[in-house]
Amino acid sequence: MKIAVVILNWNGIHLLKQFLPAVIKHSENADIYVADNASTDDSIKYLKTNFPTVHIIKNESNGGFAKGYNEALKHVKADVFCLLNSDVEVTENWLLPIKKSFNENPETAIIQPKILDYNQKDYFEYAGAAGGFIDKFGYPYCRGRIFNTIEKDIGQYNDETPIFWASGACLFIRSKIFKELHGFDETFFAHMEEIDLCWRAQHNNYNVFYNGKAVVYHVGGATLSNSNPKKTYLNFRNSLFTLVKNAEGNILIIVFLRLVLDGIAGIKFLVEFKFAHFIAIIKAHFSFYASINYLLRKRKINKPQFKYYQTTSIVWDYFINKKRKYKSL
User: Fold this and answer.
1) CB 162 within 8 Å of CB 209
2) Which of 131, 165, 251, 282 has the fewest Cβ atoms within 10 Å of its own Cβ atom?
3) Predicted TM-score (pTM) above 0.85
4) How far apart are CA 17 and CA 198, in angstroms?
5) Residue-wise pLDDT tens digits, 273-293
6) Other CB atoms within 10 A of residue 291 CB
């Protein structure tokens, strides 16, 4: 099995300096690629000078995570693509459990490793933790992370188990299935496109798995921090995109209730004087309304037909029922 580790870069020379050496050191028998999204810093020059064995792919523009990978992976030949954020520290032998799992489970399309916090290495990291799920209204959560409650890693998620979505911070996918699914939806630009991809894979009867025997450490927020209103905009908008495209059931009722919950979130931002985030939610909704026809066309193609959620409302469970950990749901 040939694995290609593909790192998407945009003006991230400082991250390449910090994390690329470990990727090269610990990724034996894998090809290493850096796909550059039209950086204006010295990333390309630095790579050519210091890492001549790394393959460089130059994208013509910064199309975000979705288009960036779609364009780059056209130039990569491998059995499995590993999409790796530039702010991830990999560990010794991290690829071995992933290869074993793919070889033993031919129906598995996508795998996520255990993602821990680079700055607190005995805690899970927000973006993925020990594998992701969503509730009926499209709010994502993880084993090891529900909203801002992060669990300490004490071995409780050292298993191999099906999950609903794998984090784009470190996502392994069979190349033939990535191509079959036509890659990421580029209208997302960034954030939650991996949830959409995993959902579409399951529409096609493929499995998404978590493997706790493979471990990486993620900084998180290196490209776009949680305090940035643009991230709020993308998360709220793209979550609605994902729901309409993929959710089984009466989508009008589901989306209406989701919009009500988003309104409550907006009021919370107002009370906290986070006016830019409140405006970001409003902009997300207008962008969603403008995209309805496109999303409904995609919904006809996907033909949603399976129950996608374990808990009806993670918002209710977390804030009302005070369930802070995945195992209490």
Assistant:
1) yes
2) 282
3) yes
4) 31
5) 999 999 999 999 999 999 999
6) 16
